[in-house]
Amino acid sequence: MSGPRPVIVAVDDDPAVLDLLRAWLAPAGCDLVPVRGPAGAVAAAREARPNLILLDVLMPGTDGYELCRRMRDDAALAFVPCVFLTALGGAEDRRRAFAAGGADFLSKPLRRETLLAAIRKQLATDGRWAGIKAGSEAGPTRTILPRFEGFKAHLIERYAPPAGDRARLQGLAWDRLYDAAPLTGAAPAELARLCADFLGWDFLPDIPADDISLGLLPAAFCRANSLVALGPPGRRRLALSNPFCQSGLELARLALRSEGVLCETVSPPEAIASLFSPRPAERPPSSPAAAILDGLLRRAVSAGASDIRLEPKADGVMVRLRVDGVMQDAGTLSKDAGARAVASLKASAGMDIAERRKSQDGSFDIVIAGRGFRLRMATAATPEGESLVLRLLEPRQKPRSPEELGLTPEQARRLAAYAGRKSGLILVVGSTGSGKSTTVYSLLSRVDCGARSLMTVEDPVEYRIPRAMQQQVNEKAGVTFESLLKIAMRQDPDVIFLGEIRDAASAKAALDLASTGHLTISTMHTTNAASAVFRLERLGISRAILAESLLCVVAQKLVRRLCPRCAREAPAAEEERRLLAPFAIAPPPLVRRPQGCAACGGSGYLGREAVCEIMDCDPPVAERIRSGEPIGGIRRFIRERGDFTIVDHALDKVRRGIASLPDACAEVFAEELDLYSRGGGAAEPPTAAAAAQGGRRAILLVDDDANTRELLRAYLQGAGCEVACAEDGVRALLELGSRRFDLVLSDMNMPQLDGMKLLEMVRQKGFPIPVLLMTADSAAGVEEECLRHGAADFIRKPIDKEVLLLRVRRALAQAPLAAPPASRAQGS
Questions:
Q1: How far apart are CA 376 and CA 387, in angstroms?
Q2: Measured between alpha carbons, how far is 219 from 276 in angstroms, rounded to an integer?
Q3: Which of 149, 222, 546, 687 is most buried per CB count within 10 Å?
Q4: Cα separation of 106 and 111, whole Å?
Q5: In 3D, which of 542, 455, 550 has the Cα closest to residue 504?
Q6: How much of the chain is in helix, strand and coil states, percent to nearest 5?
Q7: For residue 756, what are the β-bridge partners?
Q8: Looking at residue 692, what is its pLDDT?
Q9: Alpha-carbon separation of residue 608 from 145, 440, 666 (angstroms)
């Protein structure tokens, strides 16, 4: 080690360790100051003015963590790196080391090469920390005044505090950021989230102990500026509670510039402050099951998950999270731990923990990382045990505006105009998980509850609406949907929200209310706006009543939002052009594609946005509804007159770099294929293709693995079949819209659109084609699930040639040769 000889203080109660350190460090050019035990260690270190301190953790009287804290309280030692000598090193030890102000661990028994490498690293840290100390002492902290003033104006607009609180809020200095909490009524965690949204940063509600980066920044500096460095090398992040602290942010950036910090995040002040406490800030879990659930719930909230699934398998309980609409594996629990976790959750929700054979549902409220959640639960019995699905809802969360959800300004304006109407029915439709409830609550938030009475009938209440009378179905207590509807009718509200139209009774109630002077809002499950008319007709509502009462239908889907930090722009590839060919849509010259970074967890996506269409039931559309025109004809009319359809909205997001083209194809374009193919008419239903192929049966083979496709193609062609191939479900739908097939042979697990979703869409569109599914998943219940959803048969991989051909022949023998029933013309 060149230059002046560095001074190292070593504190250990074992003289043999001190002798060993002296023998290793002297030849390496270091001066060692040995201190036997913690007594007098602070004074000895202050006198030695060291470049580095080595501390044993397990010492009698005062352990290394406490001794490090005392040194950090001494101004002369606060910025000297401390390295712990210990056999420990778990996540909790890392948290305790950071809280005490440590820079690293060295595991015992010590090795000379490891010790010298760590010392070289920490001597560089000493120089970096000295620079931070000098910068911290240079003068008062500067602020980003314009942005902070803008944020205060944002808070005033959002919360509209009384005049006195407004004046105090306007006068707040940047370092009193969280004094805005009592003035606005927002919790500190909510203020932190609003800061992140306002600045376009990420929000990190909770900081796992094993994510802390030791030694990058001095603890005294981190505590003073409420910030912390996170993540492993190459994926560094900086979390801070006050992003308006300019000098602290600049010093941290300067110190970490060689680390390649990928992003900066905002965390609640209590989340960072808890890292500096000697003990965990929260009460430890009362049982192993509680500890498992606590960690799982925190992880789900931190990842932005909407659902948690506990799925029992033969060898354990699989934990999965739904993040941005995509399922992610989150580990596996033992059978016993999984059963205990399920029982604990059921008890919290007031469910019968002894009943494991029947499905149950329930909910309970909980605070996770400073945010209030309602966990909505549903259980189901499986051959391997009881499965459980948790839905995470924030009922007190302020509804976002339609523009924040992804609607265009024009769509938001039209919805606001409809929300101001005196009577009529507004329907929001889409598939399960398409964000219908979120859009409805955004719409309801625009109703002036001071001038109009708003009542809801929900099962369950998902979000709280100030000044609204919200009623919740409770079947166990005898509070049914029908009884609440009667109460609502007697209360005579101006605006009523019916959670969902599920059956003939709720459909009739919604139309009765809409036609008797009430603005009625509800949701329904359909694939597009025009199909809502067909669905209501099947529920017994006449078209004449629909034409008179329906104001508009909002059809909605969700697409994943590309991560703004890592998405890359490039010319549209030939494959992307081919995806759009059936729609006669020219792709934009440049498209953005996902890459993956620390900010998005490597997925390339960060959140989801709505894509929607609003079908106005104006006189031309109402007349077509009244006259009994088929749904396909209504959809073609809407498109041909130039309405902004859901395909237009999705393509607009692709052009603006918000969504990727393959994602838009999978979520939106593929389901609209029949509207755009063959000149805008409904897709011709495929019938048996044997005649068209000269007696050969046509099979569509769908698998994302090229080797599997080639092998199965050879098997089928050898058996005299005509075979076309597709790499995933999106391309399969494009093939189905362009030619005829007798059988679809599809893998289950594929990107973009998997086999189960492909099967569902084939059935929705009325294609009378048998679908045979393949999978390598050996879990029990998979075959039953496939057959229950309408698969003609099921084959496990690896594929046996003879079994494959026997099952294909059986499926082809059962394939219908006639055209589909007339109802398809009405329903598509």
A1: 14
A2: 8
A3: 222
A4: 9
A5: 542
A6: 40, 20, 35
A7: none
A8: 40
A9: 32, 17, 14
Q: Is the dihedral of CA 574, 579, 581, 587 positive or negative?
A: negative
Per-residue model confidence (pLDDT) at position 142:
47
Phi/psi at 243 (5° precision): -70, -5
Dist CA 532 CA 359 (whole Å): 30
Q: What angle do CA 523, 529, 534 make, to 5 degrees?
A: 85
pLDDT given at position 264? 83
Are 425 and 510 contacting, i.e. CB atoms less than 8 angstroms apart? yes
With a CB cutoff of 8 Å and minimum separation 6, the contacts of 75 are: none
723, 672 Cβ separation under 8 angstroms: no
CA distance 527 to 194: 34
In this structure, how many other beta carbons lie within 10 angstroms of the beta carbon of residue 772? Answer: 23
Q: Answer for the pair 119, 221: CB distance below 8 angstroms, yes or no.
A: no
pLDDT number for residue 436: 92
Q: Which two tokens stand for residue 642?
A: 């130039």
Q: How many CB atoms lie within 10 A of CB 707?
A: 8
Nearest to 811 by CA among 772, 765, 757: 772
Q: Could you give the CA distance from residue 722 to residue 694 in angstroms, rounded to a whole number?
A: 10
Give the position of tokens 């099947």: 538
**Contact indicator for 439, 402 with CB cutoff of 8 Å:** yes
How far is the C-alpha of 73 from the C-alpha of 77, rounded, in Å? 8
Query: Can you read off the two tokens belonging to residue 85?
Result: 């000598």
Picking from 797, 801, 479, the residue whose alpha carbon sits closest to that of residue 488 is 479
Q: Give 140's contacts (C-beta < 8 A, 6+ positions apart).
A: none
- Reduced 3-state DSSP string for 37-83: CCCCHHHHHHHHCCCEEEEECCCCCCCHHHHHHHHHCCCCCCCCCEE
Per-residue H/E/C for 429-468: ECCCCCCHHHHHHHHHCCCCCCCCCEEEEECCCCCCCCCC
Upper half-sphere CA count for residue 568 (Cβ side, 13 Å): 5
In the chain, what are the domains?
7-136 (3.40.50.2300), 145-276 (3.30.300.160), 288-393 (3.30.450.90), 402-678 (3.40.50.300), 698-827 (3.40.50.2300)
Q: CB under 8 Å to 261, separation ≥6 — which residues? A: 229, 236, 237, 238, 253
**Structural tokens at position 668:** 């939106």
Please check whether residue 374 is in contact with residue 472, taking contact to mean a CB–CB distance below 8 angstroms.
no
The helix (H) or strand (E) run that includes residue 178 is none
> Which residues of the chain fall short of a pLDDT of 50?
140-144, 279-285, 678-694, 817-828
Distance CA 424, CA 453 (A): 16
Do the Cβ atoms of 580 and 495 come closer than 8 Å?
Answer: no
- CA quadruple 779, 784, 789, 792: dihedral, nearest 10: 110
Q: Which residues contact 357 (CB under 8 A, 6 or more apart)?
A: 381
Phi, psi of 596 (to 5 degrees): 110, 130
- Please, how many CA atoms are within 13 Å of residue 187, restricted to the half-sphere of its CB? 17
Q: Cβ contacts of residue 448 below 8 Å, gap of 6+?
A: none
* Amino acid residing at 590: L
pTM: predicted TM-score of the whole model, two decimal places: 0.58
pLDDT value of position 303: 80
Other CB atoms within 10 Å distance of the CB of residue 311 = 20
- Other Cβ atoms less than 10 A from the Cβ of 785: the count is 14
User: Could you please report the per-residue DSSP string of 369-404?
Assistant: TTEEEEEEEEEEEETTEEEEEEEEE-TTSPPPPHHH
pLDDT at 93: 64
Query: Taking the mean position of all CA atoms in its chain, how far away is CA 58?
Result: 42
